[in-house]
Amino acid sequence: MALTIRSFNLGALQTNAYLVQDKDTDRGFIIDPGMNPGSLVRAIEGLTIEAILLTHAHFDHMAGVDEVRRAAGCPVYLHPLEQEWMTSPKLNGSLMWPQISQPVTAAPAEYDLGEGQVLELIGHQFKVYHTPGHSPGSVSFHCGKDLFGGDVLFRMGVGRTDLPGGRERDLIDSVHRLYRLDDEVTVYPGHGPKTTIGYEKANNPYIR
């Protein structure tokens, strides 16, 4: 069974939200419903959404979570190190950019994510990697030839580490872990265009 992956560019920071579906059914799940998620909410009408997964809890990745959760009637998954960020505009960063966002809060996530966990969603298995550095609870989701990496690894870039809880050494270690995946694995990042593990290993100027 193949996956159908749709990307939605949301909010002032152009965050990538993903709607992941099984190609042959109306089942799906969502990764990182960011700011102003109206286009995403419209896209899930008539679908069975099994979960909302958060790669991390910075406001631009979770600002739309309550709106989408109400529309989909599904639970939210997040690493426990960032559970408090859902209810704290200070921790989730929304207080830092008042010119683009009101203070953001959301109800806590229903379920925790952890290293090595395997999520059974839409008839597929998604392995959870704890990939801190950009934030302490950042995670990535891997299924076959697809990787959803949040703000860890970008095309020709990596996540910033100057926000609260960021740590450059952890980010470097996290990217090197992802580099162990097959070169053909497609990386769907939190911002910008998709890339592949092989391309980043050969060309990314920040981490070789």
TrEMBL record:
<keyword id="KW-0479">Metal-binding</keyword>
<feature type="domain" description="Metallo-beta-lactamase">
    <location>
        <begin position="14"/>
        <end position="191"/>
    </location>
</feature>
<dbReference type="InterPro" id="IPR051453">
    <property type="entry name" value="MBL_Glyoxalase_II"/>
</dbReference>
<keyword id="KW-0378">Hydrolase</keyword>
<keyword id="KW-0862">Zinc</keyword>
<dbReference type="InterPro" id="IPR001279">
    <property type="entry name" value="Metallo-B-lactamas"/>
</dbReference>
<comment type="function">
    <text>Counteracts the endogenous Pycsar antiviral defense system. Phosphodiesterase that enables metal-dependent hydrolysis of host cyclic nucleotide Pycsar defense signals such as cCMP and cUMP.</text>
</comment>
<protein>
    <submittedName>
        <fullName>MBL fold metallo-hydrolase</fullName>
    </submittedName>
</protein>
<dbReference type="InterPro" id="IPR036866">
    <property type="entry name" value="RibonucZ/Hydroxyglut_hydro"/>
</dbReference>
<dbReference type="Pfam" id="PF00753">
    <property type="entry name" value="Lactamase_B"/>
</dbReference>
